[in-house]
Design goal:
It is elongated and about 90 Å long. The longest helix has 23 residues. Strand 10, helix 8 and strand 11 form a beta-alpha-beta unit. With about 475 residues, the protein is of the alpha/beta class. The strands form four sheets. A five-stranded parallel beta sheet has the order 5-4-3-10-11, sandwiched between helices. Bound molecules: adenosine monophosphate and zinc ion (ZN). The site of adenosine monophosphate has 15 residues, from helix 1 and strand 10.
């Protein structure tokens, strides 16, 4: 399998550390609100990678975290370690405890995975359940003299890390400022602008809802340390794949690398770093303040099936930005329904042909084409094209069905399920009426053409053979 690795900035042949086992970790959501359809693009990409690995015969162990503490509002704009804790902020806004906020949105996320056919990770690890692991890891870093204390917390010393390991901090980052350490820095106490918090002290004049005792004082972990602590706990000090959205490439992931490699001295911490490009909406950024940070609930309210969204994600390559519009989702819905109907029709068709040598080799060729597409850095537009080709081909229906059901192990589109009920547009109603009239007047040939047209548009026709 060929996979783009952000670490080398190249497409590489995927070679796991200990085949056929593959350890994979994805940075999960910060559970302070409903995840957006942008977040879900990232999780579907990880799911696709996981399913592809399984399809290719690897044995996977998949871990995802839930960030339920310590992710500050400044983190995503590059000002790590500043701002308010997202959970505490949401707690004030919604008038619930931070624990209730985390439980509510964490549960919503985990329950939503199955709606999108995202396979449940083998381990879903909450940051608040792993405070001790994080403290222990910070202690290891402290012993190695990779930390220092300032007034608001314990920080990671990136210069000491470079001296000790001979590695360059932030090699993988796509932010030049990170590498050069030239960011505008709000905290003058830090030795170097690139240094980041491992443990933050609770403010002296305020009792936080989420805070813990530690060797350094009461406080809470920095956002980055949880992923190093939990991924190494469940996958070992070195493992195969670490995934997330492209924004994490700038600071969160370089910080994870520095913490983990600093603590263990084992390089590389992770062999392949996989980053999915962002979802945009109507050609621009998606944001809560812009009113376009759509959630799965918005998608469902508009009458879509969540799997329409999954199909939509596959219409673009994961390393290219994908632009969401409701029209594009409708087009994905129509395509998915058409696909499902054709698969359903395959099941009802009686087999007339036996599998000739020629057709048998075609089945193998299509299987190879599909496998090649997904193995080519998860080329889903190409993989979908192969599915459509199979349907158009002259191989026997039964074999088409079996082949497409195999492909659905990766696609996860439930192609053998009934098309979901939806509002029938006027255009289709008109076509149905026209067909009925043609049938009544005995013009079956024309009526059949209209039947095909209706199916082409993604709708089922109930055929009553007696009339
Ligand atoms: P967060 O909840 O902010 O920690 O984000 C959870 C995951 O979603 C991270 O991997 C982000 O990189 C990813 N993400 C955030 N916004 C988008 C977006 N618009 N498109 C795709 N992925 C996103
Ligand atoms: Zn992470």
């Amino acid at each position: 399998m060929q996979l783009y690795n952000s670490l080398s900035r190249k497409v590489e042949e995927f070679k796991p550390i200990n085949p056929p086992h593959v350890g994979m970790y994805t940075c999960g959501p910060t559970v302070y609100s409903y995840p957006t359809i942008g977040n879900y693009r990232t999780y579907v990409t990880s799911d696709l990678l996981l399913r592809t690995l399984k399809f290719l015969g690897y044995e996977t162990k998949y871990v995802m975290n839930l960030t339920d503490v310590g992710h500050l509002t400044g983190d995503n704009s590059g000002d790590a370690d500043t701002g308010e804790d997202r959970l505490e902020k949401a707690s004030k806004k919604e008038n619930k405890t931070a624990w209730d906020i985390a439980k509510f949105y964490g549960d919503d996320f985990v329950n939503s995975l199955s709606k999108l056919n995202i396979e449940k990770p083998d381990i879903i690890a909450k940051a608040t359940d792993h405070i001790d692991d994080q403290i222990k890891l910070i202690e290891v870093l402290e012993k190695k003299k990779l930390t220092y204390k300032i007034s608001d917390g314990i920080y990671f010393d990136t210069v000491a890390f470079e001296k000790q390991t001979g590695e360059k901090y932030g090699e993988m980052s796509n932010l030049d400022q990170i590498k050069e350490g030239a960011r505008v820095e709000p905290n003058p106490q830090k030795k170097n602008p690139r240094d980041f918090a491992l443990w933050k002290f609770s403010p002296k004049d305020e009792k936080r809802q989420m805070e813990w005792e530690s060797p350094w004082g009461t406080g809470f972990p920095g956002w980055h340390i949880e992923c190093s602590a939990m991924s190494m706990k469940y996958l070992g000090e070195q493992f195969d794949i670490h995934a997330g959205g492209e924004d994490l490439r700038s600071t969160h992931h370089p910080n994870e690398i520095a913490q983990s490699e600093g603590a263990t001295g084992k390089i590389p911490f992770v062999k392949y770093w996989v980053h999915g490009a962002f979802l945009t909406v109507d050609g621009g950024r998606m944001g809560k303040s812009l009113g376009n940070a759509y959630t799965l609930h918005d998608v469902e309210e508009k009458g879509f099936d969540d799997l329409d969204l999954r199909y939509f994600y596959f219409t673009g390559h994961y390393r290219k930005q994908l632009n969401f519009t409701w029209e594009a989702l409708s087009a994905a819905q129509a395509a998915l329904n058409k696909l499902k109907l054709q698969v359903q029709n395959l099941r009802s068709q009686e087999e007339r042909n036996s599998l000739s040598e020629e057709k048998l080799s075609k089945v193998d060729a299509y299987r190879k084409e599909f496998t090649d597409a997904i193995s080519d850095d998860l080329n889903m537009p190409q993989a979908l094209a192969v599915v459509w080709e199979v349907l158009k081909s002259n191989i026997p229906s039964e074999d088409k069905y079996d082949l497409i059901m195999d492909f659905d192990e990766v696609l996860g589109l439930e192609l053998n399920k009934e098309v979901t009920q939806k509002e029938i547009p006027q255009e289709i109603k008109d076509l149905m009426q026209k067909r009925e009239e043609l049938r009544k007047s005995g013009n079956y040939e024309e009526a059949d053409k209209i039947r095909d047209e209706i199916i082409q548009k993604g709708y089922t026709v109930n055929d009553d053979k007696s009339s």
